[in-house]
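Homework-ish question, so no full write-ups if that breaks the rules, but can someone show me the predicted structure for this set?
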Amino acid sequence: MNRPFNFSAGPAVLPEEVLRQAAVEMLDWNGSGMSVMEMSHRGKEFISIYEHAIKDVRELLSVPPEFSILFMQGGGIAENAIVPLNLSEAGQTDYVVTGNWSERSQKEAQKYCTVNVAASNRESGHTCLPSPASWKLNDAAKYVHLCTNETVHGVEMHEIPDLKALGSNAPLVIDFSSHMASRPVDWSRVGLAYGGAQKNVGPAGVTLVFVRNELLGRALPHCPTAFDYKTVADNQSMYNTPPTYAIYIAGLTFKWLKKQGGINAIEERNIAKAKLLYDYIDASQLYSSRVAPACRSRMNIPFFLNDASLDERFLAGAKEYGLLQLKGYKTLGGMRASLYNAMPFEGVQALVSYMREFEQTKA
Amino acid sequence: MNRPFNFSAGPAVLPEEVLRQAAVEMLDWNGSGMSVMEMSHRGKEFISIYEHAIKDVRELLSVPPEFSILFMQGGGIAENAIVPLNLSEAGQTDYVVTGNWSERSQKEAQKYCTVNVAASNRESGHTCLPSPASWKLNDAAKYVHLCTNETVHGVEMHEIPDLKALGSNAPLVIDFSSHMASRPVDWSRVGLAYGGAQKNVGPAGVTLVFVRNELLGRALPHCPTAFDYKTVADNQSMYNTPPTYAIYIAGLTFKWLKKQGGINAIEERNIAKAKLLYDYIDASQLYSSRVAPACRSRMNIPFFLNDASLDERFLAGAKEYGLLQLKGYKTLGGMRASLYNAMPFEGVQALVSYMREFEQTKA
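A: Not a homework solution, just the prediction itself:
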C-alpha cells in the first residue's frame, strides 16, 4: 500500500527510505547488538554516527570551516532566548519582523537586550517582505535577526541580504528552521543560522546551529552552561547528553539528500513543486494565495478557499484522497501545504488533482 | 539470535518489546499512514500519544494531582540551571553534595543564587552518604537540592529525607534521573523531581519534570520562556515543539512497565538483580566495590579489579561474551554495570558468570 502524502508544517514528512532504514536497524545498529537509542553517547558507535552527520551536513550545505556546527535542544523557540543570551551582550540588537516567528523572536529577546525593530511587514498582514533598503539598522547593534522563511505566513526571503552593503557591520543571525537544507546558503552573509530539525532534517528534539567561531565566548553570565554556544562547541555538542536518536535520523536524512544529488538538485525539485501548486492556485477561481508573488515560500504555502464554509468538506475529502495535515495555522485559518524536501513531486500532483476535482464537483 | 546485554549508564538498554513495537510502527502508527516522527504535535494522533503517556506515568508512579508532569528538553544538566531560574528567586538555596552530579548542580546554581552546601561526602570520595541529621540547612533557603542516585559514584538514597522533620520548610528538589521509575517515590516529601529519560524511561532528548503546582510562577525575569515551568505546564509541554518521538518511546516504556506489574514489581526485580551482583563482588577476591553497603545504588554499580592492568582484558572478554558497555566513568576508572529496569535478571546472571570465569581462569 502507498503511504498517504503528509503536508504537515512540522514535525513533518520524512523520506520513506530513511524510515525504512531506521526500522530495520531499530534493534541492532550495524552489528553492534544495540539500538541507536541504547548507545552511550561517549561510545565509538555513536561517535561515528555523530561524526558522519557533521561531515555530511557540512559538505551538503557547503559550510565553511570558520563555522562550528552544533546539535542543541529546545528548537527555534528556545533559540529565541539562547541567541540574545549568547550574542547580545545585553546591548542593542536589530530585529526584522516578517511574520509570526520573528514577532516571537523579538519579543523574547526583550528579556535580554534592547530590541530595535528595524523593519516590519505587520501592516500588510505579513504577506510581503520589507525591502532591505528600507530597514532602519542601528550602528550599535550586536547582531541583526531575521527569519528567512516564515512557516505560518508563508513568506520566504529568496536572497540573504548583504548587511555590509546596507551599511551595517553587525553579524546576521538567521532563523532558517523551515527551509534549512532546501536551498543553498550564502554563508559569507551569515554570522549564525539556527533551525529546528523537524521540517527538512529529522524529528523534533534537535536544533542545528551554525555559528562563526569568532562569535563564540560572548555569553551573558546567566546563560545556562548547556546553552552557551562556546561550551557546546568545545564539547562537540556533548556537554549534556545529546538527543542521540534524533541526530541519527538527521544523519540518515543527510545521506538521503546526498543521494538525491545534493542541495542544488533538491532546490530544483522544490522550485518545481512550489510552481506547480502556485500556478494552479493562481489560475483557479476557488483558491487564492494572499502572499505577494516575489516573496512566496517554496516550503509553506498557505491558501484559502473563497468560501470558508467549504473548509471542512475540503479537508475531509483530502483525507479520503490520502492527503494529510492540510489544515491552516490556528490564527490564520484556511489551508496550508508544506512541501518540504521529503514531499515527492507526485504528492503535489495528487494535491493539485484533488483541488481541481473539488473545485469542479463539490464547490 | 539473542541480543547482547548492554550495561551502559545512559543512554541505556530499552525493553526489547518496546523497540520491536517502535520498529513495526515506524512507517505507519496505528493506521494513521504516518510515522510518529512525522506527526504534527497539534494533531489528534500525537495528542493521544501524549495524553496516554502522561496518564500512564502518573498512574505508575502514583503522582498526586497537585503535581504537574512536564516533558522538557536539555536533560539533567540543563535542569541544573532551569531549577534555580525557576525556584531560587535569586535568594538562598541549600545543596547536598553526594557525587559528580550534585557537584555539577551546585556549581551551575551559583550563577543564579547563593548556594549553601549543606552537606558533602567529598572527603569519602563520594562513597557514603552524609546522614540527613548532619545537614546544615539554611532557614532562608528557597529549596533544598539533592541527587537521590549518583550515576557516576553509584550511591543511592534509599529513603527520601523528610525535610520537615529536619526543621526545614523549604521544598525538596530531587534529581532522580538515574533511578526514576525504578522504585516508588514518597511524593509527600518532594517539591520537584526531574530526570533525563535516557536511563529507565526512553531515549535521550526528553526530560521529565514533576512539580508541585504551588511552585509554578516563580521564575526569574531572565528565565527563557521555553524553560519557565509555568509556561510549560500551561501549554501541556507544547509551548515549543516537544521531542515527540522520545515522548512516544517513553509512553511505550510506561506501558511495558505496567505489564511487568508496575513499580513495586519492578523494584523487587531491581533489588534481586543488584543483590546478585553485589553479593558476588563482596565474596570475590578479584573484584571490589568502594561504596558503603548502606548506600549502594541498585542502578549503577561501579566495581574495580584489584589489578587495573587486567581491565582491558576484562572488557575485551566481556564483549566476546555478549556483555557491552561495562567500562567505568572516565574520572573513576574500573568498571560500571548499570542495571536499569530493562536489564533482565538473566543479564546479571551472565555478567556474574563471566566475572567468575574471568577470575578463575584469566586473573
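Now go work out the reasoning yourself. Hint: The mean pLDDT of chain A is 97.
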